[in-house]
Write a structure and sequence with these properties.
343 residues, alpha+beta, Alpha-Beta Plaits, 3 domains, 12 helices, rod-shaped, Rev_trsase/Diguanyl_cyclase, HNOB_dom_associated_sf, Nucleotide_cyclase
Length: 343
């Protein structure tokens, strides 16, 4: 041989040296990695590789005619990686042949299938540059993926914050409007409860706003604990709350939920050694499957029922009926005569 095997191993590590009979008598270090189950040495070249082009090559005699021409070939065994190659005769008698292989555009697959690194290629091989580009692209895509995840998380957090009451952690009016708009457009039945705290103003006036904030937080916890995970509990004003209960077939569930909330809110709430005493008035409206009420109608009807609870003595729940609306003006006048301190 005119060129020693160690030199070839450095200059073109993915080469093979064939004998005149087509047996592999030397394999470069990278070429040997291509045969993961056995040693390449001693195997017949045409039994290891399937020549795709030029076509109709079935023997070494056919193969020798392709000298100095490009070959398109692939491994016969899995993963059947595709290669490009060129054959060059060596030695004075030309009885040895060097086949230098490359992955071509399938280099990424080759690197993955055979766990190759830049050390498996010649230093001048453009494959190294391609590997760097692939690594850079992979790193950039991973960075982009992580950035997108962070942005998505920030977006979700911002949206959640925009729909959350900061004091109580409940949904706010914006969230309530979103839920109600969806409910009235659907065909399922649901219920709405408007809740107003009785005597809350006295807590603020006598014990201060810190006590009032504490009471609101405890009230929020109670309402969440007495409703289902599928229900929406929202704080829509200072001491005003609304609960939306989906999939309610009749008013019985809402009556039970309202009764539990009223009973629990009548228990004193401790703050700095003082008892804060409040109660709750509730107006409830049930929307059946055939009801065509708008969101505004639903909230207005719940308010009318809430007004009725206030007028009847507070600490109670009233379910809306059309008859209540006829009595609403009289109840409003009576409420105004009593004045705001009645709360």
């Amino acid at each position: 041989m005119l060129v020693s095997a160690p030199v070839l191993d450095v200059l073109c590590p993915m080469h093979l040296v064939l004998s005149a009979t087509g047996h592999i008598i030397h394999a470069g270090p990278t070429a040997q990695k291509l045969c993961v189950t056995a040693d390449l040495l001693g195997q017949r070249f045409l039994e290891v590789f399937d020549i795709k082009r030029p076509r109709a090559i079935v023997s070494m005699a056919d193969l020798h005619k392709t000298r100095d021409l490009k070959l398109h070939l692939e491994l016969r065994d899995p993963p059947r990686t595709a290669f490009k190659g060129i054959m060059v005769p060596v030695g004075d008698a030309g009885n040895h042949t060097v086949v230098n292989l490359s992955f071509g555009i399938s280099i990424v697959d080759g690197v993955r299938d055979f766990s190759l690194s830049n050390a498996d290629f010649a230093a001048t091989d453009l494959a190294i540059e391609m590997l760097y580009l692939v690594e850079a692209k992979t790193a950039a895509m991973e960075a982009s993926r992580k950035l997108n995840l962070r942005l998505q998380g920030a977006k979700i957090a911002a949206e959640e914050q925009a729909f959350t009451d900061t004091l109580t952690g409940l949904k706010n009016r914006r969230a309530l409007d979103t839920v109600l708009k969806r409910m009235v457009k659907g065909t399922a039945c649901f219920g709405v409860m408007n809740i107003d705290l009785d005597y809350f103003k006295e807590v603020n006036d006598t014990l201060g706003h810190a006590a009032g904030d504490h009471v609101l937080q405890i009230v929020a916890q109670i309402m969440v604990s007495e409703t289902r995970k599928t229900d929406t509990v929202a704080r829509v004003g200072g001491d005003e709350f609304t609960i939306v209960l989906p999939e309610v077939r009749n008013g019985n569930l809402m009556r039970r939920v309202g009764r539990r909330i009223i009973d629990r809110l009548e228990e004193p709430i401790a703050f700095n050694g003082q008892d804060c005493r409040i109660s709750a008035s509730i107006g409830t409206v049930w929307i059946g499957e055939e009801d065509q009420s708008s969101m505004e109608d639903v909230l207005s009807n719940a308010d009318v029922a809430l007004y009725a609870s206030k007028h009847a003595g507070r600490s109670r729940q009233t379910v809306y009926t059309p008859a209540l609306r006829k009595r609403a003006p009289n109840m409003a006048r009576a409420e105004r005569r009593q004045g705001p301190d009645a709360q």
